[in-house]
Amino acid sequence: MNQCNRINTVGNVDSMLMGISRLTDRTFRFMEVCGTHTVSIFRSGIKSLLPKEIELVSGPGCPVCVTPVAEIDRAISMAALKDVTLLTFGDLMRVPGTSSSLSKEKAMGKDIRVITSPLDALEVAAREPERKVVFFGVGFETTSPAIAASVKEARVRGISNFYLLSSQRLIPPAMKILLSSKDAKIDGFILPGHVSVIIGKEPYSFISDEFSLMGVITGFEALDILEGIYMLLCQNKEGRSEIEVQYKRAVKEEGNPLALEIMKEVFKTVSARWRGMGMIPGSGMALREEFKEMDAAEIFDISCEDKPDAPGCLCGEILQGIKTPKECSLFGTRCTPQDPVGPCMVSSEGSCAAFYKYGG
Amino acid sequence: MCLGVPGKVVSVNEDIAEVDFGGVRRDVSLLLCPGVMEGDYVLVHVGFAIQRLEKEDAMETLQLLEEFIRG
Amino acid sequence: MMEKNILLAHGAGGRLSHDIVTELFLPFLKNEILSPLDDSAVLTVEKTRLALTTDSYVVKPLFFPGGDIGRLSICGTINDLAMVGAKPLGISAAFILEEGFSVEALEKILSSTKSAAMEADVMVVTGDTKVVERGAVEGLFITTSGVGIIPEGVDVKSSHATPGDVIIINGPIGDHEIGILLARGEFSLKGQIKSDCAPLGKLVQKMLKACPTIHAMRDPTRGGIGTVLWEIANASDVGIMVDEEEIMIHEEVRGVCDLLGFDPYYLANEGKLVAFVPREDAERVVGIMRADPLGRDSAIIGKVVDQNRRKVLLKTHIGGHRLLEPLSSVQFPRIC
């Protein structure tokens, strides 16, 4: 691996922690928006090193957590159709739908396969022309340009049995809703580094402009995250509320304009439902008219009615930082990591799963 | 969101690059990141290069730390 | 809580595999010899303790860098005997062949089986072959059983880990699972990593000669060291602390883990063991291990403590802590 990531030496970490400690003069509640940050934080053991006054809360940037039950059910129904091969990223395999999950359906014999790139879906479609290959496309702005490029490529290559079941979402609209809720007491954001590689800095300006809060676009190594927290504390000390970039080696202020262009060429913004947060306008992506022939939601006759979350499940509020896992009546009883009810327990580093392991 | 992994470009063939990640190699699409050359470092997500990585900026983090230790 | 149908996850070696054994199989089959669920059963005949173990091999692909299903079927069973300190007496091998399977391929596999047995100083003393219709199995399944003798004075059990014990591993983790993944050509990755598939019997005999009072040993196969350490912590009712910096992972394995979002502590190994050794003997045992080709990269990775019982605490590379829980399900590659 290149030296860009060999920066987590203990010496460096200790110095950063000293800096953080010096600037922690009260309690802070920082939200890491992105699920990948949650995993990094967990695996590096950062929480055990931070001053107790700093609380890190997981946000809604996690496809496992925010994909609604109805969309999982729809994907499951799609996989049950004759001649359909459903391809998905691994993240969604264990997310519970109303009565099953993609992984359970696969175990029952449905043609459901895990892929790691939308281009793999094209390869499957090209190799197996008799199958209707449906790609369950989830992800945020990091992933949408790649899916868009793959849709275009399908056309270039004349692949006619590739379909996209789009379940993609946009981060800034969800954050706006989160901030508009008076219950979420967040002091600052550890902003998603890889989403920002695509969208740059500008889309987050509402955080400081409208809400006077701070945000730091942060990388994923332990030292990156510590530096991001340090930069938030510096802003606080100096009375600033700005959007800054910590992850300079990857994030340019303008993002990746070509990726954005391709994304906008293929997708239009639509309203989308977020598990636990309801319908958020302009927060989802759907294929434009010109690409209708690849739109699985249009082509296949599968409905997607709203389904309620499991009764008692507090994932929505937990994802927004409003409630803690302990406040959920299902926590540890009906809902455990082995038998999860809600998404916060499915992801092994989701808020509830993490709380379960550490016992609070 | 999202696993993005840095890798070194070993070879380029039109819009596909072979990228090395500590000895493991994968073909990576350059459709979102054209102009990448052999020897460059790229950030890869779902089989696509989404950004060229600037080595100089990686060093900035270490510099900040040195300043901090001194000051 | 049992599912209505068997899932692939029930075979993955983590919590669900543990559950299927404890909640489905044990209620029917339990007895005092089976119930500890150690790698081998121990049967006492007069004053002699015999170890008996069995395993089925369903690996795909049949051939992979570092070995094949034949080699794996010998090594896996030898290693299960070794984990209770037993010297192997003999192996049985039952082959289920798919109609149409290539004889040339079978010859290659039998040749590997023979080599592995010779490496392990054991003979295949009995066997069976069956042929089933095309499609009933994919190519070939092998089931091997092994019987061995546990020398006097040796008492290696998952429940014997004791506070003060030092935890030793004989090399880097993850090679087997990643080697297989690369051999399958999954996820468009290319690499050189080979399975670490190897018979550990002779290495273990050397270790026991130096220290007959080794308390516990396990080979971290499916579910990885994360699962095995947790199982020992729970069987022994102790706490375990391990240091990430001491656990070696090949660069390429790390690369694949980074790309797919895998946690390396849950990857399967087929030539590794973790040993729980009384503190005073640890350095000597490590020295003996390092002198053996299968233990060159042996390292002390942690210790057993009285606190945080039934928990495994990993000190991370930045000096923080995380808990290692057993694997609950198959690891799927992540994008997020």
The gist of it:
Chain A is an alpha/beta fold. Chain A contains 16 helices and eleven strands.
Characterize the structure shown:
The complex is a heterotrimer of chains A (360), B (71) and C (336). Chain A is of the alpha/beta class and 360 residues long. Chain A contains 16 helices and eleven strands. In chain A, the strands form two sheets. Chain A has a six-stranded mixed sheet with strand order 4-3-5-6-11-10, sandwiched between helices. Chain A has a five-stranded parallel sheet with strand order 2-1-7-8-9. In chain A, strand 10 (267-274) and strand 11 form a beta hairpin. Chain B has 71 residues and is an alpha+beta fold. A five-stranded antiparallel sheet of chain B has the order 3-2-1-4-5, with no helix packed on it. Chain C has a seven-stranded mixed sheet with strand order 10-12-8-13-11-14-15. A five-stranded mixed sheet of chain C has the order 1-2-7-5-6, with helices on one face. The two termini of chain C are 29 Å apart. Chains in contact: A-B, A-C, B-C. At the A-B interface, helix 1, helix 6, helix 7, helix 9 and helix 11 of A face strand 1, strand 4, strand 5 and helix 1 of B.
Number of helices of chain B: 1
Instruction: Give helix % range of chain B.
Output: 10-25%
Tertiary shape of chain B:
globular
Instruction: Report the span from N to C terminus of chain C.
Output: 29 Å
Q: What is the CATH homology-level superfamily of the largest domain in chain C?
A: PurM-like C-terminal domain
Number of domains of chain C: 3
User: What integer is the average pLDDT of chain C?
Assistant: 94
Share in β-strands of chain B? 35-45%
Outline type of chain C = globular
Distinct helical segment count of chain C: 8
Strand content of chain C: 15-25%
- For the CA atoms, what is the radius of gyration of chain C? 19 Å
